[in-house]
Specification:
Elements lengths: L2 E6 L4 E8 L2 E8 L2 H7 L6 H15 L8 E3 L1 H6 L3 H9 L1
Helix pairs in contact: 2-4
Length: about 90
Amino acid sequence: MATIHIEPGASSKYRVTIDDRGKSSQFTVTATSEDVARYAPAGTTPERLIHASFEFLLEREPASSILSSFALPVIERYFPEYPRVIRERIG
């Protein structure tokens, strides 16, 4: 099972590292306060939303297929069910 580590950066950007079976992948994800309000229940931190979002992505594709840099709303373009599933998962 993959380990997901999230470090906050500047300007709503987060560095995400996925360690899976000895391989490490790094990503830069933008999660604005508007994104958090749109996709997660009130009180959810950006880190929690990002973590759940990467769990969602890893259930559907390998880490090597995930874009190295993206904003959370991009997930919805590839996976239309993302808003519903992620809200249920966090809620």
